[in-house]
Amino acid sequence: MPETMIEISELTRNYGPTKALDAIGFQVQRGEVMGFLGPNGAGKTTAMRILAGILAPTEGSVHVAGLDMIANPVAARAKIGFLPETPPIYDEMTVREYLTYLAALRRVPRARIRLAVDHTMDRCGLKATADRLLRNLSKGYRQRAGIAQAIIHSPEVVILDEPTVGLDPIQIREIRQLIRDLGGEHSVLLSTHILPEVRMTCNRVAVINQGRIVANDTLEGLEQKASGIGSFFMRWNHPPDLDILQQIPGIARIKAREGGWTITPAPGSDPIPELVHRSATQGWDLRELVPAGESLEEIFLHLTTREEGADTVAAYASEEVSS
Amino acid sequence: MRAASTIALRELRSMFLSPLAWTLLAVLFAITAYMFMAAVFNYQVKLVQFQSFGEVPKLSLTDWTIAPMLGNAAVLLLLIMPMLTMRLFAEEKRRGTWAAIASSPLSPLEIILGKYLGLLLFLAITVALLAVPVGLLFLFGTPDLGQTLSGLGGLFLLAAAFGAVGLAASSATDNPMVAALVAFGVLLLLWIASWVGEAGGNGISVVLSYLSLTSHYQNFLTGVVNSTDLVYFLLLAAVGLLFARQRLMAERING
Q1: DSSP code, position A12
Q2: CB contact, 8 Å: B101 with chain A?
Q3: A57 touches chain B (CB under 8 A)
Q4: Domain coordinates of chain B in residue numbers?
Q5: From the candidates A105, A151, A156, which should be mutated to test the interface with B, based on the most B CB atoms within 10 A?
Q6: A-chain residues near B102 (CB < 8 A)
Q7: What is the ipTM of this complex?
Q8: Which residues contact B150 (CB under 8 A, 6 or more apart)?
Q9: CB contact under 8 A, B96 and A77
């Protein structure tokens, strides 16, 4: 039976007159890895800080493992582990000292601290660096130490705010593997704006834009809903002016990419025959026509720019071209 | 209390792992030791003068050496404590470690007590260090033990109150320099609060002289331990800590 580990409803957070979060709500079940997507400034970090009990919401409720974070923050915080954007590292401590310290703060029973520290270092690949000062560790290892402090007390819920930013590709792969392993035992909420990361680590996705949840589904579900988007990539030897392309009916968005254009058709229409026809008759000399690969990126763009309306789509497209 | 003592021990350790604590102790010790030496020499000169009048018994060794040294140490601590306390919260926020503490199952009071306890341990070490030259005097003369202990205790209480004010200032801002300046300003105002009182003489002067740190500390230096002074220092510390607690709770709401 699935258990709800994170339950957020009608969560609003104002900073003065600005609404950072506008009545958002979602749930994460036990063992799930939920991807939390959104452009910069969408409210991801605010939501995560509220969930971690650092920030109080203006309105709404937050329950973690059944405990009310607003009414009973001390008890509820025992159920969460939080990795903020910058890992909360004490430079002057060794990895072992650091984790021992935080284990005590997270109320791990004294007799079990040693075991918990050893176990967590093992899980996060920190065994070899146990007695080195955090100051002297590379960014990847500091990040691991940050994740280690988030799981040292085996919390029901782990909240990770952009855990792979600034790491090299090998480190990223290792951290992602670690996150995948965390799911199952813990419930994980992972914020990121790296979309392939979501595909590799998450079961579900919530997309936030301008303080609102605009999608909340499984990956497959999202892709199914978005299948009408069907973007493709075209490249010509003698490409036409952007104006001419934009006048072709049935095109929602045009984006420059690697010497060609990624074209997103308007829902329900298919501009490909017309494009091919014109390529042939007007001497554009078509070289390439392939489906655009990163469909998740398109879903994301679609979701986070949807509210701008059809009129602004063209403006948006030309803006992207000129930049 | 376990969480508070965990925080306290880490605080103390981190102070001694940075050059800050060592430098502060070295500066404080060097200056007070020099002042103590000057006071002892001054006493010798006075001794000769008093001998010529045949009034040696009236010249208290403690009043002329230990008390002025502890009085000067207090002024130095007034300058130094804000520098020690300014980083209590600001540094955690700057390094981002605050998130690890704020997301731990701790009440604001536990965090504050932990930080404060760490500071008190450092102050205990400081006072113990300053007691060394004072103790040496006992090898060569007969200072008043009670008065000396009262003075050292008073210094600890005074520094503890300084620390609470500094901690409150640190909780109110993310900028260490601002925290240090505010703490220093408040402490200096409290130090000189009785100035108006001495000139006035009305009801306000009574209040101001009660608020003044100087008068309460002076009693300890003369060997008078009374509950009014004790309560004053404890009250000042409590106000500082409660202010900091309020700040931490408000911060959660205001962001």
Answers
A1: E
A2: yes
A3: no
A4: 16-97+120-254
A5: A105
A6: 52-54
A7: 0.88
A8: B220, B221, B223, B224, B225
A9: no
Cβ proximity of A206 and A26 under 8 Å: yes
CA distance A308 to B172: 41
In the chain, the amino acid numbered A276 is V
Query: Which residue of chain A has the CA closest to B98?
Result: A88
Q: Is A285 in contact with A275 (CB distance < 8 Å)? A: no
Mutate to test the interface with A, among B1, B17, B103 (most CBs of A within 10 A): B103
- Residue A56 touches partner B, C-beta closer than 8 Å: yes
B6 touches chain A (CB under 8 A): yes
Q: In one letter, which amino acid is A31?
A: G
For B151, the token pair is 């003075």
Shortest CA gap A175–chain B (Å): 19
Higher pLDDT pick, A50 / A312 = A50
User: Taking the model in full, what pTM does it have?
Assistant: 0.83
Q: Is a pLDDT exceeding 80 seen at residue A257?
A: no
- Which of B3, B97, B99 lies closest to A90 in CB terms? B97
Residue in B10, B101, B253 closest to A56 by CB? B253
Q: Is the CB of B58 inside 8 Å of chain A's CB atoms?
A: no
Residues of B in contact with A49 (CB under 8 A): 99
Check residue A89 and give its pLDDT. Answer: 95
Q: Nearest residue of B to residue A91 by CA position?
A: B95
Distance from first CA to last CA of chain B, Å, rounded?
27
What is the reported pLDDT for A182? 85
CA distance A142 to A137: 6
A249 close to A274: Cβ distance less than 8 angstroms: yes
A95-145 pLDDT per residue, tens:
999 999 999 999 999 999 999 999 999 989 899 999 999 999 998 899 999
pLDDT category of residue B55 using cuts at 50, 70 and 90: low
Average pLDDT over residues A224-237: 72
State the DSSP string of B97-129.
Answer: THHHHHTSS--HHHHHHHHHHHHHHHHHHHHHH
Report how far residue A229's alpha carbon sits from residue B232's, in angstroms, rounded to the nearest whole number.
73
Residue B165: count of CB within 10 angstroms of its CB: 27
Residue A294 has pLDDT above 70, yes or no: no
When pLDDT is averaged across residues B75-87 and rounded to a whole number, the result is 93
Confidence of residue A164 (pLDDT cuts 50, 70, 90): confident
Report which of B249, B186, B238, B239 is spatially closest to residue B212, judged by C-alpha positions: B186
Q: Is A81 on the interface with B (CB under 8 A)?
A: yes
Which distant-in-sequence residues (6+ apart) come within 8 Å of B211 by Cβ?
B190, B193, B194
pLDDT at A320: 39
B3–chain A Cβ distance below 8 A for any pair: yes
CA distance to partner chain A, nearest, from residue B173 (Å)? 17
